[in-house]
Amino acid sequence: MSLRAKLTLGTATAASLLLLAGTATAAQPGAPGIGDPYYPSAGNGGYDVSHYDIRLNYQPANDNLSGTTTILAKTTQDLTRFNLDFLLKASSVRINNKVARFTQAGGELVVDPRATLRAGTALTIVVTYSDVPSSHAVDGYTSWKRTPDGALAIDQPDIAPWWFPSNNHPTDKATFDVSVAVPSGVEVISNGTFGGTTQQINGWTRWRYRSAQPQATYLAFVAIGQFEIRQSTDAAGRPVLNAYSERLGADHGASVASIERTPEVTEFLEESFGPYPFEAQGGVATPGIGFALENQTRSTYDAAFFRRGSNTYVVAHEVAHQWFGDSVSVRRWRDIWLNEGFASYAEFLWSEHVGEGTAQENADYLYSLYPADDPFWTVLPGDPGAANQFDGAVYDRGAMAVHALRAEIGDEAFFGLLKEWLAGHRNGDASIEDFVALAERVSGRQLDELFRIWLFTPEKPAAAPGSAGGAQARTAVAPAEPKSYRKIRETRELLAAHDH
């Protein structure tokens, strides 16, 4: 759910020209949106963020969240004012230790620094606020999830505006420090490395986390409540932190049996994707969110994924996102196939690894599952539209598209391509067009037709991905369902459930 209903507070208009030695553009307001076609008001223009320091207090009893967020940024143009994406009620804003004027409306915090900020100026922006996050909704929906024992700040593509002010788009990543004080006896989980707790004199405890690698704002999360926390290290010596809600009930055992295998799944995926890109890993299991999300270093899973026993397929999906989506993020939300197609294909790879069905068998079965007249085939994984961004076709047809590419260029070129792609765009963002260009360069083949058929054609391809010669569909006998598929299907339906 994007803040697409935000009020547009004006666009950056052409400024008057200064006739000096040449012409230059005068200072002007930063744009109220980055310009993403799916969510035009997401993000902001005129500055680039390098770090967020989020220091908060949260009272589960009344859902009050208060504190300050300090933003380190640099202007990218001469600015007369700029926007932050934020829903909660701010009480003060300071820029480089000077009080700034501000207004709030429609999910935008508009900051007036009282004087022009020249391009290249280092900014320390301090926003103080206090509010009830669950009282704020956009199009009738709130991404902040209040629970019986606390709250969860988790959703895609938007969660940040419900708990910290930001430049809310994946193309402006930053490092994070998150510090949350809660009544003692309540636990807090966030991204990155756990920095410990401090007992406060008021009977509260402060929890600290640090994300040392650049992170998109929607991947920053916090889970507050009653959790069992398990800490260990993986084979590379990285810290592993897993957390299990005390409300899991009968799903507790299967949740632990799945999420505790995160380092094993990570080791396996490193063989295909290259070195794990972050400093920590882990997962969180909790009831009531209805989906799983790849929060950077600490994916979060609804307990329903484990209702029928352990499920390492959803773990493989979310761990794969640490490369595809977290380390290499979408340039625009239309590029979502780069996230979901490859994370879904990781489930095929895991199925093959554990002997429950080859990638080809999974691709064949999926292809046979949807008849030609099924609306499934009308959704374009390469440009699904905001309304279908998390449609099942983005996952399933997206995974078939990946397998079609693998079959076309061969394993050596395919896995070499993945490693080069992830290494070359690490900690950045990229587009489908970037990926196609690299695939053609690595393979030495012209691949426009393959991508057109699998990503951009609103009909069922004539041939299953990987069909001999790529020309004829396998129509003689419907392929058997792979052993893995029931789990994969369960996983897929829940993963797509957060399409708001």
Automatic annotation (TrEMBL):
Its EC number is 3.4.11.2. It catalyses: Release of an N-terminal amino acid, Xaa-|-Yaa- from a peptide, amide or arylamide. Xaa is preferably Ala, but may be most amino acids including Pro (slow action). When a terminal hydrophobic residue is followed by a prolyl residue, the two may be released as an intact Xaa-Pro dipeptide. Residues 1-26 form the signal peptide. One of its GO terms (molecular function) is aminopeptidase activity. Residues 263-454 form the Peptidase M1 membrane alanine aminopeptidase domain. InterPro entries: Aminopeptidase_N-like_N, Aminopeptidase_N-like_N_sf, Peptidase_M1, Peptidase_M1_aminopeptidases, Peptidase_M1_dom, Peptidase_M4/M1_CTD_sf. Keywords: Aminopeptidase, Hydrolase, Metal-binding, Metalloprotease, Protease, Signal, Zinc. Its cofactor is Zn(2+). Pfam families: Peptidase_M1, Peptidase_M1_N. The keyword Zinc applies. Residues 50-219 form the Aminopeptidase N-like N-terminal domain. Residues 463-482 are annotated as: Disordered. It comes from the Bacteria. Residues 463-473 have a biased composition (Low complexity). It comes from Saccharothrix longispora. This is Aminopeptidase N. Belongs to the peptidase M1 family. It is an enzyme of class 3 (hydrolase).
